Amino acid sequence: MALVASVHAKAIALIKLSLEMTTAAGSGHPTSAASLAHLVTLLMYHHMRYDPAYPNHPAADRLVLSEGHACPIVYAAAADLGMVIGQDPQHWRPMTRDEALRLRAIDSEIDGHPNPAAGFPFFPAATGSLGQGLSIANGLALAARLDGLDKRIFCLIGDGESREGQIWEAVDFLVDYHLTAVCPIFNCNGYGQSGRVSLQQAPEVMAAKLRAAGVDVQVIDGHNPTAIQQALAVHAVHAQAAAATPCAIVARTVKGWGFTSVLGSNVHGRAATEEEKIQALATLDTTAQRLGATWRKGDLGIPPLTTTPALDLQPVQPTPCFREALQRYGQEDMLAQGKMAPRRAYGVALQALGHANPRVVALDADVRSSTYSENFLHDAALQERFFECRIAEQNMLSCAAGLAAGGKLPFVSTFGKFLERAYDQIEMGLISGFPLKLVGSHVGVSLAADGPSQMALPDVSFFRAWTTLRSQAGKPLLYLLQPADAYAAYALTVAMAAHEGPCYLRTLRPDVPLLYNDTTAFALGGHHVLAEGHDLCIVAAGYMIHEVHKALPLLKEQGIAATLVDLYSLPFDDVAILQLVQENQGQVLTVEDNYGASMGSAVADALAAHGGAYTLMQMYVRQIPKSGRTPDDVLRSLHLAAPDIVQAAVRMLDVAAR
Amino acid sequence: MALVASVHAKAIALIKLSLEMTTAAGSGHPTSAASLAHLVTLLMYHHMRYDPAYPNHPAADRLVLSEGHACPIVYAAAADLGMVIGQDPQHWRPMTRDEALRLRAIDSEIDGHPNPAAGFPFFPAATGSLGQGLSIANGLALAARLDGLDKRIFCLIGDGESREGQIWEAVDFLVDYHLTAVCPIFNCNGYGQSGRVSLQQAPEVMAAKLRAAGVDVQVIDGHNPTAIQQALAVHAVHAQAAAATPCAIVARTVKGWGFTSVLGSNVHGRAATEEEKIQALATLDTTAQRLGATWRKGDLGIPPLTTTPALDLQPVQPTPCFREALQRYGQEDMLAQGKMAPRRAYGVALQALGHANPRVVALDADVRSSTYSENFLHDAALQERFFECRIAEQNMLSCAAGLAAGGKLPFVSTFGKFLERAYDQIEMGLISGFPLKLVGSHVGVSLAADGPSQMALPDVSFFRAWTTLRSQAGKPLLYLLQPADAYAAYALTVAMAAHEGPCYLRTLRPDVPLLYNDTTAFALGGHHVLAEGHDLCIVAAGYMIHEVHKALPLLKEQGIAATLVDLYSLPFDDVAILQLVQENQGQVLTVEDNYGASMGSAVADALAAHGGAYTLMQMYVRQIPKSGRTPDDVLRSLHLAAPDIVQAAVRMLDVAAR
After folding, report:
1. Which of B110, B363, B391 would you mutate first to test chain A, the one with the most A CBs within 10 A?
2. ipTM entry
3. For chain B, how are helix, strand and coil distributed in percent, rounded to 5?
């Protein structure tokens, strides 16, 4: 059969180039790459509808390489096909074989693991931290469905990485959302880094698990061109049929196919030496001869893109002010009470943004009634853009990454504590360059009664690392936002949507007094001065603004006129903050209800960089908290209540006066 | 049947107390609690072998409440049984009904979610962040097996939380390790916080998934005392039989059992109002009558502990010095090269510690040949204490927590990047008070060729938050350790084992020059001065020590005599570091190859707190890196190579001279 001969020929050619590339780089995974050679050949040369000159065309089929380390095989195909590469779409150029041989070089787009941000647009998202690809594929499929595109999303998943629970979260999600457009292909080559994979990831067990989850499964020989072609054809039918069951392919493959006599299947993540490479290439030539592998141009062909998407490029509408939004959604009476939980305001903003911007989508993990993302779901005009991800934060985050890859603007909410479950997935999204809008609710200790297992406390520290970076465009890579009241939460959610990059917004559980109004301006990087003094500059954010507010009159009684800065953004304007500090005798007290290495430490960075004589005292949570029935109880137990703030200020200024 | 009548009576009594408790607290989860009432009654009053006066006795059966929010039902039983509570075992006291009613109060041991560290020793580990309990149970079972104890580990898991992939990682692990002592009980009450759980978590689908994974399943009515008793009896047989298949129980239950007419099953995480409570209590009384519920003392009884463990309390042996350990394990020639990767030294130390301390266990996630934890596995005397967790970091970390709960000292290694996958699990372990020894390899950018998906870069920032806390004993809660050479890595691994609390050790991939020797002392909280100058204090750690070393002679050429501090520990001795800074004109340059908000920021904290006039310049990774073939390539691209350090120092001192 002509197809068989051509597939073998092309697969072997790609394996050979993978070997050349990895040996040139001195590292890489030629054996994993080889196990995918036939699958990749049929996908990229014969089955996927795409254009190598525009591989991320909105209507194009996409390939997510979940087992990112196998990327040399895709790079080899890209070089052979002259696929475009380059960071700037204006200057894309066809990839050459020479460029393939520059794999992993510092100035090459051919990165060690898949990363579109490095300049390889064929890959929809960065992978390499394992187990995340199927969730990304789910997100891409949701985006395509919203856009009315019939594109298919192929996802190549290693058997070893199928041990990651996230894969099974993704399978459940795929069935819940009936994502027949996704084609999960499990590459069962039987070996991980440390020898044989567990029998729990053997092909027959994988198939049984998938079937138990409600997925049809085809188990095939992943090096048999006819079997692959047939399995992909079956999937194509499933993808089109409205009532079909989602289906997956479990492929038995050989790690190091074609040269196991040189590098055994148990070799992982090591390139062949020059000598081994020569042997392997010769062995592959022998294999090609034995299989009658012959490339004939007409046997394989990339199907053209049949859909020209009529993407609904509705312009973004202006967002109403908070009061107007509340009126619009029948919640106007909320403001009358003079206090409101910032998480509620987030829900209102999310709903308003949903109407203003058709790209906005919302995801939550079974706590939508706590985060108030439910406002979005309960709006009939928006509900198709809401995705309930259940208690599976990892899948939710990678799914959001996939939605972003599909052109959407994902707002992802859960308790700040549970976002921690997906920090690795968030990091992969940031590496990909996606504008993830992350919303962690119930942050700090004001959640009180539920105790530390539900409180976000080291989150400021983690996200602050990302605020110290610059994006490729030279701007802060991420903004961390801590609204202290409902107006601030509303305005910062709107600002976050308008910003091109990723953000992390922290919302509070309790009702807190309103501090601002609709005329207050909030900007990423901004702050507000809530009280002007000259003895001490108190810098706080979120819930602690209210605690400091209680402390201010007590300080006045002690003869201390304090400035209060609501430092709602990290990063912030260092110069402006230093100016405020100087106006307060260089005395700074930071107050936060999370662990250290956080906001106060960001202020320390600014002071220490400037080099003047400043004194900073940091108040933060210094032990793991326990449950208390009220925020006050918990704050007192942590020495962070208003009287503690007063005491700290007095002690500090006494010391300074000496 | 007498048992049936008594179980109903007790279950209803516990539900009533749960209602009282949660209403008194003003929050909590009475409906979830009620769904577990019959299961908990049979477990705690009739099936588990334990002593309420010593609930964490090494030989006792244990109960892990994975769905931690349902804890009021267990607290109710504990109060009824007079179970001991209290943070200090010397002052344990029997819990009373009044104490139950102080649920969630700030000075109560009855925390909002299970936490032994809060003073409730019946719970082996903190839970409440969902999906982690079965992994903890696995760890407890492994510990019991090592100690030759036949105890059983019961784990109550919610259907909603079974969406977490970690549950399925734990199921695979349980089958791989044939942990028949673990009894997973899935509580299928059909509701999560946001309404019905997905059909993917319906009882029949759960059963099918478990069977596909190789687990026997009994599907029962979770409010039928006879069915529960029989299912637990079947498990008891499985637990004893050497060749039996692991088995699980899937229980259909009702959320809010006995009072759904008052609080529907769709009520989650809300306590009954006083009025609702009165109604619910009356409804429960009616139900009790209808079921003929009557408590008779003899019907149920806690089986006594049959095993008195002859726990092998071998004393901890001294650990040899590095050279001696290398000799012992036939790796003496390593030192001759003058350089060695710190990760290799970790492997040697781990092996030595395994011999010195029988409590030491090792876990890895399919990268043991990269972290060098394989040394432990390949030592015949130690291999039974090595657990290959495959590519499933979340299960690995919670499993380590379970091992710690079982009295072991777990050393957990993987790439630092992949530990991020389990930050939430690590946090739960820290909340529990476990001495987790975490080892992240391939940290910083010196991994180079594999790119950012494999590099640990925000990890210092995350773990630094934990270094700002104090333990209950008033000591630093966690030490973050960054050895710069093989001697340091060996010594710090040994120091970490000797320390009672948790630690995070970062190891490097490349071979780096040896800086120290066997006479160098390393202490948690310590540092070393590697060069003494007077113009500038350069503070670095890990790989960057070597880069600064290259810069020192170049600085000398520029007339700059710099001090070099190897700040290998966070927290560190602030006073000593400030002294060094003062001796260097108050000029400090920090150099690290991870993101900001990290070591340099810790130095900023110290400087800003002191309040003198210091100037700090921080060098760190300011953009997401890409692959490079060598560490040098990557450092240069990030402006962190030796010439960049020189340039920064010159710029800094020029500015200072003005």
Report:
1. B391
2. 0.98
3. 45, 15, 40
